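Run log // design_07
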């Protein structure tokens, strides 16, 4: 991972994510498993015979692993909480349904207000470079609110991305209380209301409960990655055994070298590509970094892969976004131009952007 990733730290040229990954090789996972068992025992059958806990899911490979581990290994009875997307791939819909069928779990899905979504998707792209701000806000807010509404206390998330990849809150912890503070969702609600883009009522469902509200309720959100070794490729292999489908049989994405990550929506992936324009790396860099850590490839093998794929903006993303927001492709690229980092890129006379840096080397 490059040093342009927000909040990342390096020690002797090694990023904090890789340092943490090495530390976990010495973790006593049997002790962690016992910690989780005690936590599950605390909440098992504690809700009048209904659900024992809630799991925040998208339907992807990690969601399958989370449900598998909590239901089949820990013998909990979870309810699954998810948020509707801008658009969904057929594979994404099948995978969500598979979670219900294969594990016998109920899924509660938050339906999007499409009018609010349409207004905010274009506005937050143009003004903040964050086209999925509304959906991301809901992804953080809905599981917390719904868990408390159902009278549950234990809410299960997958990995702690700040600890795994680097970020502001990168200390290892089982608690996910601080997850909404990881800077993925900027606090722009007041600006949106003040500018009359949407009303306070329209943003109510996307307002994330505060840490104090969660504490007062005694909500206990946890990262499953604290209790069991977390390896996204291993999760994919486990998910396959439970009926998970990758995207390759439906759609071939242009900007990545694999087909099992972030496959629920094509349009949503604009937020991933914007990491490239702002920081010079996108989803291919992240996946390549994982493969190197897992020993699946060498850094030397992955550098040309990153160079080939990271800069590609999938045409399906552009078409989907323009269709949903009702703007022209020309207008789309005019907005996108605003979010290229001039320290990392330069634009030629035909408005085409070129990297100033070299993959694997830097500026």
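design_07 sequence
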């Amino acid at each position: 991972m490059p040093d342009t990733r927000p909040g990342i730290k390096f020690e002797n040229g090694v990023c904090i994510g890789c340092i943490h990954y090495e530390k976990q090789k010495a973790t006593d996972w049997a002790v962690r498993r016992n910690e989780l068992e005690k936590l599950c025992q605390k909440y098992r059958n504690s809700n009048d015979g209904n659900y024992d806990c809630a799991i925040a899911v998208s339907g992807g490979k990690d969601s399958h692993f989370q449900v598998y581990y909590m239901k089949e290994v820990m013998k909990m009875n979870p309810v699954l909480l998810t948020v509707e997307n801008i658009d969904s791939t057929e594979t994404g819909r099948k995978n969500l349904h598979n979670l219900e069928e294969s594990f016998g779990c109920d899924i509660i899905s938050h339906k999007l207000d499409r009018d609010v979504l349409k207004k905010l998707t274009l506005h937050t792209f143009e003004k903040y470079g964050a086209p999925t701000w509304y959906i991301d806000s809901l992804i953080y807010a809905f599981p917390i609110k719904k868990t408390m509404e159902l009278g549950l206390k234990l809410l299960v998330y997958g990995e702690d991305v700040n600890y795994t990849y680097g970020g502001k809150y990168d200390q290892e912890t089982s608690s996910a209380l601080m997850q909404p503070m990881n800077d993925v969702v900027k606090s722009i609600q007041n600006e949106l209301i003040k500018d009359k883009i949407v009303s306070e009522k329209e943003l109510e469902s996307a307002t994330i409960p505060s840490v104090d509200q969660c504490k007062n309720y005694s909500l206990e959100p946890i990262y499953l990655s604290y209790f069991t070794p977390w390896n996204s490729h291993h999760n994919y292999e486990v998910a396959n055994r439970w009926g998970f489908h990758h995207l390759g049989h439906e759609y071939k994405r242009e900007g990545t070298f694999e087909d099992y990550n972030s496959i629920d929506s094509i349009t949503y992936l604009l937020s991933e590509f914007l990491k490239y324009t702002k920081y010079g790396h996108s989803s291919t860099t992240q996946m390549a970094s994982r493969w190197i850590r897992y020993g699946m490839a060498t850094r030397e093998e992955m550098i040309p892969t990153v160079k080939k794929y990271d800069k590609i903006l999938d045409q399906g993303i552009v078409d989907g976004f323009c269709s949903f927001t009702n703007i022209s492709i020309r207008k789309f690229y005019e907005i996108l131009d605003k979010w290229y980092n001039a320290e990392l890129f330069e634009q030629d006379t035909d408005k085409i952007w070129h990297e100033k840096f070299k993959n694997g080397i830097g500026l």
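The two ends are 14 Å apart (CA to CA).
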